[in-house]
Amino acid sequence: MDAFLVTGFTTVVVYVSLATLLHLQYGKAGIVNFGVVGFVGIGMYSFGVLTVTHQVPFLLALLIATLLTGLVAFGLGLLILDLDAESVLVATLAFATIVFHLVTTEKWLTNGVVGLGTIPFPFDFGRDTRFYLMLLLTFFAALIVFYAYRVGVSPYGRLLFAIQDNEPLAKGLGKPTTRQKLVFFTVTSAAMGFIGAWYASATQFLVPQIIGASLTFTVWIALIIGGRKRVLGGALGVIVTVALFDIFVERYAELPPDYAQQLPNLKLMLYGLVLMLVILFRPVGLLGERRVDRP
Amino acid sequence: MVDALVIGLLEAAPLVLAAMGFTLIYYLNGFINVAYAENLTLGAYFAVVLNSTLGWNFYLTIVPAAVLAGLFSVLSYLVVIRPALRRGVGQAEMIVLTVGLSFFIRHALRVVFGVQLYLFDFTSTSYLSVFGTGVTDAQTTALVLVAVIAIGFYLFIYKTGYGQKMRALANNRDLALVSGIDPTPVSALIWFFAGVAGGLAGIFYGVFSFVDYLMGWNLILIIIMIAIIGGIGSVRGAVAAGVGAGIFTAAAVLNLPTPLYAQVLLLFFFIVVLRLKGKGVRLFRMQARG
Amino acid sequence: MKLQLTDVTKRFGGRQVVNVPELAIGAHGIEGLIGPNGAGKTTLMNLIMRRLPLDTGQVTWHANGDPVEISRLTVEQIARLGIVKTNQIVQDFESLTIIDSFLLSLADSGFEKFYRVFSDKELRRQTEHEIAGYLDFFHFEAPNGRALSAGEKKLLNIIRCLLLKPRFLLMDEPTAGLPDEQKTKVMEFIRRKVAEDDLSILIVEHNLDLIWNVCEWVSFMADGEIIIQGPPDEIRGDRTLAEKYLGKDHV
Question: What is the model's pTM?
Answer without folding.
Answer: 0.87
